Amino acid sequence: MTELNFHQIAHELLKKEVEVVTLQGNFVGRLLDVGRDVIVLESRGRVRPRVLAIRIETIVAIFRVENLGPRGPFGFGPGDAGDSPEHEESSSSSSH
Questions:
Q1: Alpha-carbon Rg of the chain, whole angstroms?
Q2: What is the CATH number of the domain that holds 14?
Q3: pLDDT digit string (tens) for 29-51?
Q4: Its pTM surpasses 0.85
């Protein structure tokens, strides 16, 4: 990937939640800015958001993170499990 292509892709991801894979680890947050040598990412810290500057030369990949909404302890969202019509039909048919 050339530098120009990276900048084009990164600009399309501005103001979106992204994951950045670097040689030093992975970072998740909102992409705030794309500079010539660095990108600026707002990452959620434990107490307050942190702003990170990541050198472009260390980036292996960058991609958008889909916001799936709140998840429970087992990865299910509200209404994902338990109350499906198939579940009710199978339980009512087994009572015959």
A1: 20
A2: 2.30.30.100
A3: 999 999 999 999 999 878 889 99
A4: no
